[in-house]
Write a structure and sequence with these properties.
Shape: globular
Helix content: 25-40%
Strand order of the largest sheet: 1-4-8-5-9-10-11-12
Number of strands: 12
Low-confidence stretches: 1-6, 8-24
Number of helices: 12
Radius of gyration: 21 Å
CATH architecture: 3-Layer(aba) Sandwich
Mean pLDDT: 92
Strand content: 5-15%
CATH topology: Rossmann fold
């Protein structure tokens, strides 16, 4: 499980909040990132029926692009991720969120591949979103920002690739919301994707997942400091309560009962027995409070609303006459679909449905279900079988494409 240990780290996370709030606003001026700016002549057409213009995309790159420009790998981040996939986060100071997977000598090897990771549209780490300044008013967009979708995110990423002069991707990879983007990439731009790695995801959100997201959104909107989304303009802070509670609820879905029992069970937190109060008597309570407090250092409440809504709206079959297979008909892309036995957020049957659709479409696909008790978050953790599968799949794809060992 990510995010550190409970107990004393709660206080440390509290102390970090002041520093984070005083830091430059990442939404407009992201630190340690590259920024691609798209002016009024290059609007982003959104599924909501409006255009976003101007806008910017904050991104990071690792490794070197080869002379043929054929070794680019796009990493798509999950709901609470960002572009800092394999390097220190400028707000928290923590390492990259997928350093187990991406880096020198890692399965997604930056000695071989040119790795790109962009903050999604609607995010809060430098790509245009609700926390960004609206050039028309000089104030944050807040809820005046248009609702965005997974296809919108992918269209923006395609524009970024055009900006970088990259016609095709050797591979696109991601888990959870990132996996949804991978599927959308393969469906919308099959000629631009040689290999696709959708991990722990689905072609649409289940009613249960939509319900969990709604609980989080209501927690944010019920906070009196949210101010109908205008908290940045009014100088209030819904992060500490509403967003923290939303994160706590969501974090439970990323774990598994077995993992929680193994790590915490019913152990007490810094005490020998119950206190007959509403303090954090149990270690698991303290852990979740820590997760909530540390999360608000680096995320924006309105962005959480927008990105959870984008996931809820995602329904790949809806755009292809109700059949997922139609999205991948005659696809030249090779796929590796991965799930985890203890993931109840995106359980294995969801991944099997993707595989069945790919088979029906005649696509080239391999599938792996990894036995683990680490839950949905397993894709972010040091899971040896996952790392071996990704390495093997990319090595095979590299040989099939004729890529050399290094740029």
């Amino acid at each position: 499980m990510q995010g550190g240990a409970p107990g004393a780290q709660e206080a440390m996370a509290e102390a970090n909040l002041t520093t984070a709030r005083e830091a430059p606003r990442e939404a407009d001026s992201p630190r340690d990132s590259q920024v691609a700016y798209f002016g009024p002549d290059k609007p982003l057409k959104l599924d909501a029926g409006v255009e976003l213009s101007p806008f910017q995309i904050a991104y990071k790159t690792y490794g070197a692009l080869n002379a043929e420009r054929s070794n680019a790998v796009l990493i798509c981040h999950a709901l609470t991720g960002d572009q800092h996939v394999a390097s220190e986060h400028p707000v928290t100071g923590k390492g990259g969120w997928w350093e187990t997977m991406v880096g020198s000598g890692k399965p997604i090897d930056t000695d071989r591949y040119f790795v790109i990771c962009a903050n999604v549209i609607g995010g809060c780490m430098g790509s245009t979103g609700p926390a960004s300044t609206d050039p028309k008013t000089g104030k944050p967009y807040a809820l005046k920002f248009p609702v965005v979708t997974i296809p919108d995110m992918v269209r923006a990423q395609a524009m970024l690739l055009d900006y970088l002069g990259i016609d095709t991707l050797f591979a696109v990879a991601g888990g959870s919301m990132g996996g949804m983007q991978v599927l959308e990439w393969a469906a919308s731009y099959p000629e631009r994707v040689f290999a696709a790695l959708p991990i722990a995801c689905a072609t649409r959100h289940s009613a249960q997942n939509i319900a969990f997201h709604e609980v989080g959104r209501q927690a944010i909107m019920a906070d009196p400091e949210w101010r109908a989304g205008d908290y940045l303009t009014e100088g209030t802070d819904p992060q500490h309560r509403g967003l923290a509670v939303a994160r706590m609820a969501a974090h439970i879905t990323y774990l598994s009962d077995a993992a929680l029992h193994r790590k915490f069970g019913r152990k007490f937190q810094d005490r020998d027995s119950v206190t007959f109060s509403f303090d954090a008597d149990f270690q698991v309570e303290s852990y979740l409070r820590y997760q909530g407090i540390s999360f608000v250092e680096r995320f924006d409440a309105n962005s959480y609303l927008y990105l959870t809504r984008a996931m809820d709206y995602f329904d790949l079959a809806a755009d292809y006459d109700g059949l997922v297979a139609n999205a991948f008909r005659n696809s030249p892309t090779r796929f590796c679909v991965i799930s985890f036995t203890s993931d109840w957020l995106f359980p294995t049957p969801e991944s099997r449905a993707i595989v069945h659709a790919l088979n029906a479409a005649g696509a080239r696909v391999s599938f792996a279900e990894i036995v683990t008790d680490k839950g949905h978050d397993a894709f972010l953790l040091d899971e040896p079988e996952l790392l071996a599968i990704v390495r093997g799949f990319l090595d095979g794809a590299r040989k099939a494409r004729g890529l050399s060992g290094s740029p």
